Amino acid sequence: MTLPVERRNAVLNAEQFLRDLMDPKATPRVPLAVRQRAWRCLKHFPSKYDMEMASEQAPAVFGEWKK
């Protein structure tokens, strides 16, 4: 069973992973096509604000968001 905090952390970790894929210093030798795909994924990725709203509107899904 996945806990709400684990679900929220998965979203935040996925965001960081995609940002790292876009950064040649963090991930050298990644093909341009992969960097572009990461950018397309992040283009509409939930922001911190979106995650806070999700936490308020659906705490059972993403848990309490500590401010």
Structural features:
single chain; 67 residues; mainly alpha; 4 helices
Characterize the structure shown.
The protein is mainly α. It has one domain (4-56). It has 4 helices and no strands. The chain has helices spanning 4-22, 32-43, 48-57, 59-62. Helix 1 (4-22) crosses helix 2. The longest helix has 19 residues, at 4-22. The chain is elongated. The mean pLDDT is 92.
Rg of Cα set = 14 Å
Question: What structural category characterises the helix and strand content?
Answer: mainly alpha
Mean residue pLDDT: 92
Strand content: under 5%
* Helix residue percentage: 55-70%
Major sheet summary line: none
Kindly report how far apart the N and C termini lie.
Answer: 26 Å
Total count of domains: 1
User: Which stretches of 5+ consecutive residues score pLDDT under 50?
Assistant: none
Q: What is the H/E string?
A: HHHH
Q: Briefly, what is this?
A:
The protein has four helices and no strands. The chain has helices at about 5-20, 30-45, 50-55, 60.
Question: What's the layout of helices and strands?
Answer:
Blueprint: H1 4-22, H2 32-43, H3 48-57, H4 59-62
